[in-house]
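Appendix B. Chain record.
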Amino acid sequence: MRTGVLICVLSLGAATMSSAQTAASGSAGKTGGSTSAVTAESRPTSSDGWLPEPHILSAGVDFASQWLGGDDTVPRDGLYPDFDIVTGAGWISAGPGYRRHVWNGHALVDASAAMSWRAYKEAKARFELPALAHDHLTVGAQARWQDYTQVNYFGRGPDALHEQRSEYRLQDTDVLGYGIVRPHAGLSVSGRFGWLKQPTLSSPTGPFDRDYPNALVQFAGEPGVADPTSYLHGDVAVTADSRNYPGHPTRGGFYRAAAGFYSDRNLDRYSFRRYEAEGLQMLPVATEKWLVALHGWGVFSDTAAGNDVPFYLLPSLGGDRTLRGYDNFRFHDRNLLLASVESRWALFRQVDAALFAEAGNVAARAGDLNFDKTSYGAGVRVHTRTATIGRLDVGHSQEGWQVYVALNDPLRLTRRTERNTVVPIVP
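Structure tokens predicted for this chain:
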């Protein structure tokens, strides 16, 4: 979603790396020494593509990866750019971040802030002990503040009309603690418990406002519009993750089951429980040159008599990761079901072409879920060995065409992390 950032970094990187390698080659010719340290042999890569990769492309990707991130499971100390704001924030967002391992590497302190061109703002800080009990236990705490100025809302249910599109502004603060137990490699049991301060709901605002109606007026009768509330929330999840690189998976699978609760602390009207199941499997057709990814996701809500799920905490479908032929946050309801397949071909060593098809829906009752909402499309992924650093997806549905640009992989599945945002639930 940050097209300008990616294009500028890739272009600058290609020129810089090309100049550096030319200088290094000249120096080696004079001294009889080795060539530049950045070579095709020394650079960590995925498998070769179907076509030879142009040198300028390799140089640009190498340089861009230094700025746009790599394998997020091994964070580097020091300053870093934070481009990670929620779906719908706009095409450009950025801000500073700083992380530092302390106590001889036994603890991690991380703080960052970012702002998008639609004036979405986010700031978060966390303290983590990542490798307790011989790397079998992680515990941490995080505080997160966010201000999302133009969040889409079309109404509740699968039949919500596109013409009903509206927006609202959401501001909230969430403080939580989390723990992850890893009994075996690839298997984890995680939990978190937190306090979500009563969100502030107001009229959409900010630059590049698309002038859609105010959701708080258009859907004034929706649960939670007139009376947002504070929550105690918590969840537990069991995850089996055998993907080789979560930021750019080419092998393995991801399977997760989770159960959580949201306890209304002010009104006793919006308490509910949420259950999730998700699976992803990478299937190699021709080594890593041709891959097929199968993905499924279900979310189910349960409430006691007299309670409901507020509109800003409903599961949603549509956007740059789910039903890419629809707008962001296109469909909302208590329950959600999604299935997708994506086929990838390694055009070059660090550029993949993709075709995808998706189907799913939302419903008030789990028994009414179906796959009536469909979309299909094509895309391009630019990546290092461990992470996708840029992608373009063009999707089509019965509502027309959508174009999405992002700096991460659609199969990264941010729901795997205990530090992700709890409101709104991001598809």
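Further analysis of this model is presented in Appendix C.
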